[in-house]
Amino acid sequence: MIAYCNENRSRQGAIRAAAVLKRVHDGARSPMETATAIMVVAKRFQGGLGYAKIELNHRVDVPNEFKCLAKAGYFEIDVYAPASGTGIEYNGSDHLDKQRSASDAERMTVLSALGFRMIVLTGTQFAHQLQLHRAMNAIALAMGLKCDRSEAFQKRQNDLREFVIRHWDSGL
């Protein structure tokens, strides 16, 4: 994608997209997990948190003493910041299913018991600028970053939000 953006610099948004994509890691399982990662790693002047040292789909094996809390033997954290122990999960509409919701609750219980700071982002938050801004503030605090509440930053953050969901199906 970066090569395409660089070859098509005259297309609207190509330069900005190439700059943001340089900070995104391979391995996201969905476009919205990629969008979540972009919101975290994009630089502040681009509307992101500027936190580049993340891992996607970080595997956490469930220790024997915690196996009584969940059916799964391991979990994967969508976006993980190792330095702060913060995990970010994107939960789209497929997480509304009762069985999936129960599995999500087990995962959050075990990961929290293991000391991870877990934050959940939803499609509804991505759809509404102020809700996403508050969620990104929670992520920033969990990661030990300063919250930027300025109007200028909120504008840049909203521009980035609109960029990452531009082809978004609201059912995600």
Layout of helices and strands:
Elements: H1 2-7, H2 14-21, H3 31-41, E1 55-61, E2 74-81, E3 86-91, H4 98-113, E4 117-122, H5 123-127, H6 129-142, H7 151-164
Parallel strand pairs: 3-4
Antiparallel strand pairs: 1-2, 2-3
Structural features, described:
43% of the residues lie in helices and 16% in strands. The protein is α+β, with helices and mostly antiparallel strands and 172 residues long. Helix 3 (31-41) packs antiparallel against helix 7 (151-164).
Give the fraction of residues assigned to helices: 40-55%
Topology order in helix (H) and strand (E) letters? HHHEEEHEHHH
- Overall 3D shape: elongated
Spatial separation of the terminal alpha carbons: 22 Å
| Rg on CA atoms, Å | 17 Å
In terms of per-residue confidence, which ranges show pLDDT below 50 for 5 or more consecutive residues?
A: none
**Average pLDDT across residues?**
85
Question: Could you give a short account of the major beta sheet?
Answer: 4 strands, mixed
Number of helical runs? Answer: 7
* Strand order within the widest beta sheet: 1-2-3-4
Structural class: alpha+beta
Binned strand content: 15-25%
Number of strands: 4
